[in-house]
Amino acid sequence: SQTIHQWPATLVQPVGSPLSLECTVEGTSNPNLYWYRQAAGRGLQLLFYSVGIGQISSEVPQNLSASRPQDRQFILSSKKLLLSDSGFYLCAWSQTQGSNSPLHFGNGTRLTVT
Amino acid sequence: GQNIDQPTEMTATEGAIVQINCTYQTSGFNGLFWYQQHAGEAPTFLSYNVLDGLEEKGRFSSFLSRSKGYSYLLLKELQMKDSASYLCAVRVRPFNAGNMLTFGGGTRLMVKP
Description:
The structure holds two protein chains of two kinds. Chain A is mainly beta. Chain A is built from no helices and eleven strands. Chain B is built from no helices and eleven strands.
């Protein structure tokens, strides 16, 4: 069966510091990968998605970036965090075939920028 | 662009039935998904509709009308553990263009004894 791991679970970082969140998927190959952010009491906002190694599409321009160095590894980064970057970050995967394939989410990272 | 609307909050009584509505206006449509999200946790997949009609899964059912841009999630025999946010999400591109979902703001359901 497929599993998705995301870490760390919680993170408190000062403004201006760098960020690196990591996500790995097991039990499947060539998945689509996604980073979403959820602000407190709000819906999920798609930040990045990837359909293959080294292929990253950005949905929202901001000071975050994403990379996919391996087939089942997806990394979210920032060089300098802003207060507005606080939120709940969720990594997800889906199969590349089949429009009925749901997104499967990791447990999330709660980021607080102080 | 896409616009997905759901009520912000709903309250229901244990053992009752509740219907959570979702309306959407999108530039394309390739399926509608419902997710459950407990506070502080990740969303979990509940149901998928791409054709008009009702899909039933135990106590949960989901309905879709593509012509009206409307869906609802029906929860029967409510239990206290059903207190959570329910997220409506639409897929607007085919799977070979990323397969991503666009989410509504979610409906926070509170089940009371």
